Amino acid sequence: MTDPAGGAPTPPPPSGNWQAPQPPQGGFNPNFQQPAVEPGPAPGIVYADLVNRIIAAVIDGVIIGVLFWIIAIIGGVISIAIGMGLLIGLLFGLVWAAVTAVYFVYGWTKMRASFGQKFLNLETVNATDGATLTQNQAIRRWAFLWGPIAIGYAIPIIGILIVMLGGLYQLYLLYTISQSPKRQGFHDLQAGTVVIKHG
Q1: Which residues are registered as beta bridge partners of 42?
Q2: 17, 93, 95, 168: which has the fewest C-beta neighbours closer than 10 Å?
Q3: What confidence tens digit (pLDDT) does each residue in 116-174 have?
Q4: Phi-psi sector, 133: left (phi>0), alpha (psi -120 to 50), beta
């Protein structure tokens, strides 16, 4: 069949086996198209979607935020009393990092989920066999998830810039979750973990 305008022949319509091009796997996807999610690892279990993971993170953030402000008030009172603001600021940041590490590492290794994840029937498990995370695995996941922000809180003055960059890093993690067929973010890949949801 020729083009009505007199040009080259028009290509035939696609056959019944034709499939739309899939977004690139593993690299940057400029169209922000989400690849198809793989089926869950077992009946009644699916890979947790981005929305549920964000809601769980918000719940965890509220819990940690309460602890954060309790520590901040105590640290502020002590720093005023002894006049050592920078030292107290450093100690405060280290305590905040320790609190968040204990919160998440304990949850992932003892309950298979943080409190926010538990609320939504999510679990963070070993990607290969669904086993409970080891302590080293949980620490590694925490470090890649919250480490940059924890470092920012621990460093006086320039820490604010690090925390801001940490916020951009968190957006990158959300992007990597959205682009993975198993909804594994960069931090999940580094720790060999996956987040699942029970139906």
Answers
A1: 45
A2: 17
A3: 999 999 999 999 999 999 999 999 999 999 888 777 766 766 666 777 787 899 999 99
A4: beta
List pLDDT tens digits, range 92-128.
777 788 889 999 999 999 999 999 999 999 999 999 9
- Nearest alpha-carbon partner for 36 in 181, 194, 189, 198: 181
* Contact assessment for residue 115 and residue 107, using Cβ atoms and an 8 Å cutoff: yes
Q: Could you tell me the pTM of the whole model?
A: 0.73
